[in-house]
Amino acid sequence: MILVTGGTGFIGRELIQRLIESGHKIRTLIRPSPVSPNLPPGLSLDVALSSLEDPRGVRAALIGVETVIHLAGGERLGYQPHLMQGEIDGMRVLSAAAAETGVSRFIFLSHLGASLTSAYALLRAKAISEQSIIQSKTPYTILRTGLVYGPHDHFTTSLAMMLSISPIVFPIPGDGMTLIQPMDVGDLVTAILWTLDDKATLNQRYEIGGPEYLSFLEVVEMVMENTGSRRVLVPTRPPFLRIGAWMFERLFRIPPLTTFWLDYLAVNRTADLETLPRVFSLQPVRMENNLEYLANVRWMWKFFSFQRISQRR
Questions:
Q1: Most buried one in 22, 103, 116, 239, CB count within 10 A?
Q2: Which residues of 261-276 are buried (b: 16+ CB within 10 A; e: fewer)?
Q3: Span 3-40, pLDDT tens digits
Q4: CA 161/CA 300 separation, integer angstroms
Q5: Is residue 280 part of a domain?
């Protein structure tokens, strides 16, 4: 049995579907909520209801579980101190419970740039979480990834929505030349699946990303090309963008622009291009060939509709 946290997110949904298609038995951990969980339809899986900060609920969810894949995170909600602390506390509870119940493997999805000395709260939280699982003595694999994109992501679709509501001009952080390494969600899921079958990845930490380094400016150009939302890109000092992000985080439950994105784009976020081919025998797809899901969507309508749905939830 495999326990997946974050199973209702866009990575989790893709992963659960692929795991079940591969014959694995899956349980997903879901925080109690009055709203029906957004799980992949038509699939047979167990559901455990518990907050990650509830030790008894987490231990119960781990009964019979051999592998944990921890995807849950709060970056899409922006910087909120209680969310960052909740992520750290949740990992401490989950890693301790995994050790107590004899889990044989723990796979954790982290971020490029995670560091205990990072100036950015989320990246510090990821590094602290990494330490929790390492210190628990449960065999682990940590995957520090670049930005992951695909249908229903919080990266390219957020850019598409922001472009759609921007009048004529679109502000970008600084000169837009920060390098990132976007990774297709299908490639990430494949890497996780292959990790399950490769004992050589035990007690290892890998930094992975897509097949190329792209400037943020190049990514925005690709999104504009695929959505048809052509705007004049205006270099903007990050402090001014932070004011906008601060407002979005307080106006919307799931904001399209957050301080996390500004923190992430403050410096280059790249990994060795050869890690995926060398370790996982996987040649990742190029971003420019894989953004068709952005086309023919009314992104302005999507933005306002999404916020109404989010507020109801």
A1: 103
A2: bbbbbeeebbbebeeb
A3: 999 888 889 999 999 999 989 999 998 887 666 566 66
A4: 6
A5: no
The parent domain of residue 61 ranges over: 2-147+183-208
Do 297 and 265 share a structural domain?
A: yes
> For the segment 157-191, what is each residue's pLDDT rounded down to a tens digit?
999 999 998 889 999 998 999 999 999 999 999 99
Model confidence, pTM: 0.89
| CA–CA dist 70, 215 (Å, integer) | 29
